[in-house]
Amino acid sequence: MGKPSLDPALAAYRSLIAARGELFGTPAGPAIEILTDEAEISTTQRAVQEARRRSGLAADDVRVGVLLDDPYLLVMRDAVRFPDGALGLYNRIVSSPNVVILPLLGDRVALIHRFRHGTRSFHYEAPRGIASGLDRLEDDARRELKEEIGADAVELIDLGELHPYSGICNEMMRLYLARITGVGAPELHEGITGIELFSVSALEAMIRDGVVTDAPTLAVTLRARLRNLL
Amino acid sequence: MAATEDPAAAAARRYRRLVADLPGHFVNPDRDGLVILSGPEELPRAESEIASRLARAGRPPEWARAGVFYEDDWIYVLRDVVRFPGGSLGTHHRIIHKGGPEGVGILPRFEGRLVLLRHFRHGLRDWALEFPRGGGEAGQSAEALARGELREELGADALSLVPLGLLFPQNNLMATHLRLFFAELGGIGAVNKAEGIAEVRAVTVAELERLIDTDVVNDAVSVALYTRARLKGLL
After folding, report:
1. Which residues of chain B, if any, have pLDDT below 70?
2. Residue of B nearest to A221 (CA)
3. Which of A72, A121, A221 lies at the smallest CB-CB distance from B227?
4. Could you tell me how many CB contacts below 8 A there are between chain A and chain B?
5. What is the pLDDT of residue B31?
6. In this predicted structure, what is the pLDDT of residue B2?
7. ipTM (interface pTM)
8. What is the rounded CA–CA span in Å between residue A204 and residue A103?
9. pLDDT tens, residue by residue, A161-212
10. CA separation, residue A197 to residues A105, A119, A179, A183, A190 (Å)
11. Which one of A30, A76, A131, A209 has the fewest beta carbons within 10 angstroms of its own beta carbon?
12. Burial of residue B111 (number of CB atoms within 10 Å: 0-12, 13-18, 19+)
């Protein structure tokens, strides 16, 4: 097991618990509880290691704590107690909030055609980007519009939150509809090869037929539709 | 536990092994896209250029290194070194699911009502109201997986499954995608409490729209399931 007190992952975890306690809370109800007590973490590590050995699985890495921390992503592994009492290790990814903007030019919607690293392929999608902080989301939405499609928002309407992958990631996307007066040139550096305008019925047909497959784009379109903005 | 090896060196070693074992994840299909630099000469050269830039900005040079930083039975989390279309160098993270990139999301209807689950989500450290979904296992069809998830999460059998197409929940970070389905249920059993599911909540279409509009339902897969089912005229 090594010496947990010297483990850099666990040392970084202790600092994170002190600095960002809100990431470690457990709400009421039969939830999955995070174990931060040193003895409970060790007990969980030993239980997982023994169970994995019995099942013939690799048991060499049962580190608990912060496994990656750079400006873009924080990856950790928690020791947890499941609602039925079972102990386990559970991964978690903490990432920055994002803004997603559906740009409306008259009665047409502007989508970008963009290369995404995760899929290694191109997608039609609404502009989006990393936000600089929860108190600056609207400024960030305006900046992303400017950077990605060269547009200024004359009106920005908040369409609420979206969680793209809540099982392992805390990422929050704030959705907006923006009324714009024109579009500029695509930002090639970001992997954007085109900006295209579609009628709302063409956009909805693309969503229906599986041409648009990007979850935030579907969500921002539906929220705008439910508020009679399209 | 490999406590003696430096974590950054271990991450780099695991990255080289992944490139050798799963080369399909490191191909560059398009020169207009982000090009992954994983070759034995180009990678260290790019890493040292990025590291110098980071050092000049007073930031840790190890942020320049490609690596596999997390691995468990389900996923790898890695940092790639890439060349952006404009020619500049940088890093970009990725999550790769070991069971393959395909999962399922299901919008179930029982006796005319849409069936949501109150599910505890570790990523959020909170409860979420969501439609059932689940990860893939190699060799299993999406239909079989959808039926399995309905049984496992709410003890239900699907009378019918209508495909609702493909969805990428987070295309910037992972190739993982879900096959979406609309399912008519023949009944509902016990929810899987051990998985962190507290209860079933069956709602009308009007109630679901209000829950989405008021931000109570804010799970991307659930919102997308409803969007597709509505546009296909199923609800």
Report:
1. 1-4
2. B227
3. A221
4. 245
5. 75
6. 45
7. 0.93
8. 15
9. 999 999 889 999 999 999 999 999 887 777 899 999 999 999 999 999 999 9
10. 8, 24, 13, 10, 19
11. A209
12. exposed
